[in-house]
User: Which sequence fits this backbone?
């Protein structure tokens, strides 16, 4: 063993919110199985904290209990980001990691990056360079700022490097590693929970998913925070559900807004099964058996492409263009006619087939571990 390996301090791996967990699980496994093993510490900021949004996903993904939990909880963007920063700083001082590894684009990603770089601790960003070019999305701001200051940037698709180059980022910092989200899809395929079982778990009639059905998720503030927009989307879902039963895994933000705006009656429970946020294995089973997915999530656009299930995205833009160009994704926005036409096409068997993009092969985390090791211990190269 070289001197460099013996002295390598742990990599501090940061997770905060639901979409981070499926990205970090394969990375932690790849760091541990790298030869030599790369030491790691898992830090959870606590941005998502409850059983549905966090704890169950840890179990499903085989994530270890976090070594550190900052327990920040919910708040406005400013409060949440500031609280993560305040609590992360002393933790960083205490643990002196070799680098901080962040994933995705949530508030915790940016908060920990800012603290680390200002203290001279290197940052590696997994899922760098994705751009929706929509600065009204909080995630877009998090992506732009994180990539500007992080030291090592791992991308999931080749177009991400073009975005980074346009922002003046030296491509020597960029490594095309592939999509770690798909590592989790591949690792869990054999363990996905059948859709009928998931409905039974919630005392709902499994007959709803015995034939063709669709899966729905919605949580973007732009879709669910405005009463008119939310009503428009629920009206459309009600229309779709007359031809295709739907399973709606409802984010807490969406549920509370539906109640606040008094829109509960729009969805017919005989045609739309409303579930709480689902575990990872439940979601994989629901999507895997679905005829189509309707969503505004970034992650589901990618997972449906990997699973070969047509996805209609209820957003005007996507930071994941490869899912449209090569995969099964179609952007619909809020256009009701386009949505109904898209659904009809899929039900007629003319949905997008797509193909799985380059390096979405279940081995992205291994490529990241190999590169990270070289980067952290240049003497070993
Ligand atoms: C966050 C991420 C978003 C990601 C989404 C997935 C940012 C800017 N946004 O948005 O990129 O796609 O997570 O879920 O980081 N809540 C609970 N239990 C929890 C966590 C939250 O009930 O464990 C409720 C709270 O009322 C909270 C609301 O959900 O106010 C929204 O949570 P928050 O983390 O602020 O943002 P998300 O909309 O989940």
Assistant:
């Amino acid at each position: 063993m070289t001197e460099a390996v013996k002295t390598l301090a742990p990599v501090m791996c940061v997770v905060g919110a639901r979409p981070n967990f499926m990205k970090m699980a394969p990375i932690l496994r790849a760091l541990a199985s790298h030869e030599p093993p790369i030491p790691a510490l898992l830090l959870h900021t606590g941005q998502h904290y409850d059983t549905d949004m966090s704890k169950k996903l840890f179990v499903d993904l085989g994530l270890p209990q976090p070594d550190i939990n900052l327990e920040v909880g919910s708040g406005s963007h400013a409060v949440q980001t500031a609280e993560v920063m305040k609590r992360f700083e002393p933790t960083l001082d205490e643990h002196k990691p070799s680098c901080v590894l962040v994933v995705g684009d949530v508030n915790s990603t940016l908060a920990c990056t800012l603290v680390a770089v200002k203290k001279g601790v290197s940052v590696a960003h997994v899922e760098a360079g994705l751009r929706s070019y929509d600065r009204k999305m909080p995630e877009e701001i998090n992506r732009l700022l994180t990539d500007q200051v992080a030291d090592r940037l791992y991308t999931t698709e080749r177009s991400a490097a073009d975005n980074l180059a346009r922002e003046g980022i030296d491509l020597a910092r960029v490594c095309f590693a592939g999509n770690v989200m798909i590592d989790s899809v591949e690792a869990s395929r054999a363990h996905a929970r059948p859709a009928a079982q998931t409905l039974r778990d919630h005392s709902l009639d499994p007959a709803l998913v015995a034939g063709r059905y669709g899966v729905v998720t919605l949580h973007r503030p732009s879709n669910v925070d405005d009463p008119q927009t939310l009503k428009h989307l629920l009206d459309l879902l009600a229309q779709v559900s007359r031809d295709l039963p739907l399973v709606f895994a409802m984010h807490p933000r969406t549920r509370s807004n539906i109640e606040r705006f008094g829109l509960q009656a729009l969805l017919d429970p005989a045609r739309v099964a409303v579930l709480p946020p689902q575990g990872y294995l439940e979601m994989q089973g629901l999507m895997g058996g679905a005829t189509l997915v309707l969503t505004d999530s970034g992650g589901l656009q990618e997972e449906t492409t990997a699973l070969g299930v047509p996805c209609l995205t209820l957003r005007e833009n996507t930071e994941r263009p490869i899912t449209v160009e090569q995969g099964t994704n179609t952007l619909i926005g809020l256009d009701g006619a386009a949505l109904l036409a898209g659904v009809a096409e899929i039900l007629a068997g003319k949905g997008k087939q797509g193909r799985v993009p380059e390096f979405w092969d279940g081995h992205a985390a291994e490529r990241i571990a190999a590169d990270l090791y070289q980067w952290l211990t240049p003497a070993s190269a």
